[in-house]
Amino acid sequence: MNIKSFLLGSAAALLAVSGARAAVVVAEPEPAEYVKTCDVYGAGYFYIPGTETCLRIGGYIRWDASAGQAGSFDGRRAVDHEDGSINDTWHKKARFNLKTWTGQETELGTLKTYTETRFNYSDGGNSSSLNFAWIQLGGLRVGKDESAFDTFIGYAGNVINDTLVPYGDFDTNVVQYYFDAGNGFSAVISLEEGSGTVGTIDSYVPHVVGGLKYTQGWGAIAGVVAYDANYEEVAGKVRLDVNATDAISLFIMAGYGTDDNLTDATWAIPAGGRGFYKQWGGNWAVWGGGTYKFNEKTAFNLQVSYDEAKEFGLAANVAYKIVPGLTITAEVDWAHNDHDSNGYNWTGIPAGKSSAVGGFLRFQRSF
């Protein structure tokens, strides 16, 4: 084979290979289905691709440092629901809170869900809890929630430790119906399981909560009544909220409950029997306070509470929004009881006319 034949053969081979490669067809990339914003249910929702369901994901990361007796346990409100120690030392808690919301329009009304899970690291120990997991179609809600005895009428102010005088239990399974009559009128009826050793129902008869509310631009007036099926007792609360100015909002709430079938031995604490709903001492209690907004970043919050068992609570804080989504709160709490009895009262203060002082420093990044 001469050089000319070799070169001609090599060129033919290269052309053949090139032709083979040219015959390979590369598939066109399919258009991506980007996430679309859903503004039907408020900010932060987006459509789950391929569905008509709108989803929102949120939550917060929080770090607390607390000291003293009144400040070394968290309030049992929606943001906490945990009692702690009263040891004289610093207490630290880190929490990751994850929330999800969904919404979808159906022929029977809006279909919603809500979940909230909390992961805590507190004083060297880990814990987690499922605080909410409910389904709602129209006005009908079923699942894990907080009692309508608290959620419908509202929590006792914007302080961290809002249960120095407790105003009702929280965690429960519910079968609940909410009715919006328009013009500011609304109502709720809730069948509840309760929680805890003596709060969970012990028969087929549920706890029952009913409530009415009237809301306008000036504020709101609301009332709830609850039947404790375990002890056949009744408790109720009424509340007035007033938006005094653009900067000042005030509230006052009063509670009354029967305790004929409740004894001190029920809870192993003094100052009168307490059920799932009437958890204050004696028959009556009152809570009041408000919020003053110095500016868009800074707010002062105050709550004062007192019950017939002569248990008194005072909580005050300043919340400062460092940047959008990051708030630091400094709070001071004082709790006092003025009755003589053995053991500890519900707030954790040693009985026998004693006082406790404590405080919180909280950093919270919400998203």
Automatic annotation (TrEMBL):
Name this polypeptide is given: Porin
Pfam families assigned to the protein according to its UniProt record, in alphabetical order: Porin_2
This protein's UniProt keywords: Cell outer membrane, Ion transport, Membrane, Porin, Signal, Transmembrane, Transmembrane beta strand, Transport
Job description of the protein: Forms passive diffusion pores that allow small molecular weight hydrophilic materials across the outer membrane.
One of the GO biological process terms: monoatomic ion transport
GO molecular function: porin activity
Keyword Ion transport recorded: yes
Free-text note regarding domains: Consists of 16-stranded beta-barrel sheets, with large surface-exposed loops, that form a transmembrane pore at the center of each barrel. The pore is partially ocluded by a peptide loop that folds into the pore lumen.
UniProt source species: Rhizobium loti (Mesorhizobium loti)
GO cellular component terms listed in the entry, alphabetical order: cell outer membrane; pore complex
Family: Belongs to the alphaproteobacteria porin family.
Signal peptide range: 1-22
Bilayer disposition of the protein: Multi-pass membrane protein
Main location: membrane
Keyword field contains Protein biosynthesis: no
Subcellular location per the Swiss-Prot or TrEMBL entry: Cell outer membrane
